[in-house]
Amino acid sequence: MQKLQPELIIFDLDGTLVDTIVDIASSVNYVLSQFGLPNHEISDYKQMVGNGFRVLVQRVLSPEKSNDDIFFDKILRLSMQRYEEHALDRTRPFPGTVETLESLYRNEIKLAVLSNKPDHLSKKIIEFLFASVKFVAVWGDNKDRARKPDPSATLELCRNAKVDPQKSLFVGDSAVDIQTAKAARIAAVGAVYGYRSREELELAGADYLITSPPELLSIVEFK
After folding, report:
1. Is 19 assigned a catalytic role?
2. Sequence spans of domains, the chain
3. What number is the average pLDDT over the span 167-181?
4. Does domain 8-20+92-218 match CATH 3.40.1390.20?
5. What does the pLDDT look like over 57-80, one tens digit per residue?
């Protein structure tokens, strides 16, 4: 395996750095239950997350309910509110993530987060769970930025970090992340331990696959 010497590594958040799925699922299911709507399994949520909270709510509702703008907005607002209150109940870094990031940081590799999760929640989770690691940027969903797989935010992160995209690396657990990296012409690492399948990551064109966060260190060669 050819090793890389990235100057910047951009990480997805949910399913890549942190396991958030139980808090997301329980929050949305709670709201659905209040309206007598069917709940979804954790395995379902693993397939539905990744494109932002609005898309998630579209996916949990039936087409009929989703097309009712007033009802949809109510479910979205209440789900967001519930999740904000419970976003750190059971959310934790994947095993070995903190140590992996600390090692990268000690070796002077710049670190960033790019998520389709709401911006303030992305920052809240990172600040709470990764206090020992310094990120050059933590960007979530923001009305002023296009969501992944649009590559513009990724390229802006590179510019802000003063790093050539070709000297960067993107790590994520879904096809959306791999597509983002490909569109930005950045090497893509698929996190097989996350929420999507190895097949999805391979089909999306991941350049590398890792089965645990520490395995990322086997790809990176320190200067």
Report:
1. no
2. 8-20+92-218, 21-86
3. 97
4. no
5. 999 999 999 999 999 999 999 999
For residue 110, how many C-alpha atoms fall within 13 Å in the half-sphere facing its CB?
A: 18
C-alpha distance from residue 32 to each of 36, 49, 65, 67, 74 (Å): 6, 16, 11, 16, 11
21-86 fold: DNA polymerase; domain 1 (1.10.150)
Angle at 69 between CA 67 and CA 70, to 5 degrees: 135
d(CA 88, CA 110): 26
User: What is the reported pLDDT for 1?
Assistant: 64
Q: What is the DSSP letter of 165?
A: G
User: pTM to 2 decimals?
Assistant: 0.94
Q: Which of 12, 14, 141, 173 is catalytic?
A: 12
By DSSP bridging, strand 137-141 and strand 208-210 are unpaired
